[in-house]
Design goal:
By secondary structure, this protein is mainly α. It is about 50% helix and about 5% strand. The chain is built from six helices and five strands; from the N terminus they run ααααβαββββα. The strands form two sheets. It has a three-stranded mixed beta sheet with strand order 1-3-2. A hairpin with a 2-residue loop joins β2 and β3. α4 runs antiparallel to α6. The chain is globular and about 50 Å long.
Length: about 180
């Protein structure tokens, strides 16, 4: 939900400052199926019972690695995508440091506490987890769940990418004046 909100903010600000929604259609991605598959796997593991399957958290880590690789590959093509790369890399770092699990602050853990502290790619943050400051602990109103610094960076990056794309889709030219 945070990511969709970020895209909406970028879109609105891009339009308000003189951009055109049609500019989004002019962006040309390399291997768009790769990012769609990686995002699809990531979301499927987050919102479906697939996350309860042993080993699913490793698929989540691979999907994160795919997102990092794809966004880095597009740094010269899509302005602002480097912010998304940094956010995804932060998430991959904390997940890799915790055996393919994202630590979640205990006060935001909800169902994790009822299931022994780990469900799929999530685990309750504590003394046994690493890089807790990169885990899910940030609460952003009106969204009910906790987010990681990487998630927040990804959201900022998506807002910037969308804004710049709506304003001017060509990554190699200056922005058009309002």
């Amino acid at each position: 939900m945070l990511l969709l909100g970020a895209i909406a903010v970028g879109l609105v600000f891009g339009l308000v400052t003189g951009g055109h929604i049609g500019n989004l259609a002019r962006i040309r991605f390399r291997w768009p199926w790769l990012i769609l598959v990686a995002l699809g796997i990531r979301e499927a593991l987050i919102v479906t019972p697939l996350s309860r399957i042993d080993g699913a958290q490793y698929l989540y880590a691979v999907a994160l690695a795919g997102i990092v690789a794809w966004t880095i590959w597009h740094v010269g093509r899509i302005r602002g995508i480097w912010l998304v790369s940094i956010g995804a890399a932060l998430n991959l770092l904390v997940v890799a440091a915790n055996g393919a699990h994202m630590p979640v602050a205990p006060e935001s853990a909800g169902p994790l506490a009822r299931h022994g502290g780990t469900i799929g790619e999530y685990t309750i943050m504590g003394s046994g987890t690493n890089l807790n400051f990169l885990g899910d602990w940030i609460r952003l109103y009106p969204f009910p769940q906790a987010y990681s610094p990487g998630d927040v960076m990804i959201a900022i990056g998506l807002a910037v990418v969308t804004f710049l794309a709506v304003r001017n889709p060509n990554p190699y030219s200056e922005m058009t004046p309002p």
